[in-house]
Amino acid sequence: MAAAYIVDAVRTAGGRRGGKLAGVHPVDLGAAVFDAIADRNDFDPAAIEDVITGCVIQGGEQAMDVGRNAVLASNLPDSIPSVSIDRQCGSSQQAMQFAAQGVMSGTQDMVLASGIESMTRVPMGSTATLYMKEGMGNYKSPRLEEKYPKMMFSQFMGAEMIAKKHGFTKEQLDQFSLESHQKGARATEAGAFDNEIVPIEVETPEGMVSHKTDEGIRGDATLEGIQSVKLIQEGGVITAANASQICDGASAVLIVSEQALKDHGLTPRARIHNVTVTAGDPVIMLEEPLFATDRALQRAGLSIGDIDLYEVNEAFAPVPLAWLKHTGAEADKLNVHGGAIALGHPLGASGTKLMATLLNALEQRAGKYGLQTMCEGGGQANVTIIERMA
C-alpha cells in the first residue's frame, strides 16, 4: 500500500462565542486556512485533487457544501472539487483519514483535509431543533426510538456516566481543567502555536486587529474559580468549566503521496502510520476512544509506550482521564499544550486543528510517534497515528 504524508497543517486561533471571530463568515474562515496552505508551500494548488471538509452543523451559513463554498471564496482554483462530511466532533479527523485513504489507495496524490465551524453564527444543535420546534419531525425515527426509548443521546449525560463509571470526582475534573488552561497559557507565551496559527484580520470597535491568539485560555484561572462554576445537573460533576469551550475556527492539513512529494519538490513533515475508526455504545457515547485506541495500536504493531505524544480531545474532562486510566499512558505526554477546555472545541474543525497542534508539538520535542483521538456523537471514535519525519 502506498504511503500518505502530511506536508503542512494549520489552524485559526480559537474564537470564543461572540468573540473576535464572531463577525467572520465560516466560509471565509475556511478560505483563510486554504490560502495559508497554498501560500506556505511552493506548489501549484491546481494539483489538489479534492478538498474534504468536516462540519457538524451544516445549516445556514454552513449549508450548501460549506467546503466547496470555502474553495470558491479562497484563492484556490475553482476547478478543485470539495465535499463536506459529518462524523460529529470527529468530522475533520475523518476528513483527514479519508484523504489519507485516497492517497494510500493510489487513486489520488494530493488531498486537502479541513474543518470549519462557527459555533457563534451557526449554534450547536440548531439544525436538529429547528424542525422539532416547528413540529416537522425528530432526528430519532420510530425504529430508533423503539431501540433507545426516551434517550436523547446526550453528551452531557455520557460525560456524567463516564465519570461515575471510572470513579472520577469533581475535584479531579476541575484540577485537570485548571492544568489545561495552565498548559495553554505556557504554550502561548512560549510561541509554541506560532507555526500552526493562521492570523485572521478582524474588525473590532478599536479598528482592524490580527486574531492570532486562542481567546479561551484563562492564564489567571484558579482552582477555586473553576470549582465555583454551577453544575449542569444537580448531583453531578460536569460543569461548563470542566467541559470544552464553544469555539469558532477552521483548520486544514495537506496530505500527499510520495509521487506528489517528488513532482512538487515538497518536504513531508509526517507520515500517516495508522487510521482507525470504531463505534460502540451510543448512550455512554464518549468512551469509545479508549477501545478505538486499543485497536489502532494493535493494528499498527505499537504499544502505548511507543507513542511520544497524545492528543485526546477534551470534550469533557472525564474523557481524557478515562483514556489515561484505560491505556496506562503517561499523563505528561497528554495534550501538552492544553486542550479544548482551554483552547476551545470548534466541533467539525477540531480534528485537523488537533493534528496541527500534535504535529508541531512532536517537532518541538523531537518525538517520533503521535496519536490523536476524540469522542464523537453516536458512540464513535477516530484514531490517527502519525510518524514524524526526521
UniProtKB/TrEMBL annotation:
Q: Locate the Thiolase N-terminal domain: which residues?
A: 5-259
Matching entries from Pfam families are given as:
Thiolase_C (PF02803), Thiolase_N (PF00108)
Q: Name the family.
A: Belongs to the thiolase-like superfamily. Thiolase family.
- Report whether Acyltransferase shows up as a keyword of the record: yes
Hey, what's the signal peptide range on this chain? none
**Keywords assigned:** Acyltransferase, Transferase
**Protein known as:** Acetyl-CoA C-acetyltransferase
CDD domains hit by this protein = thiolase
Any one Gene Ontology MF annotation carried by this entry is: acetyl-CoA C-acyltransferase activity
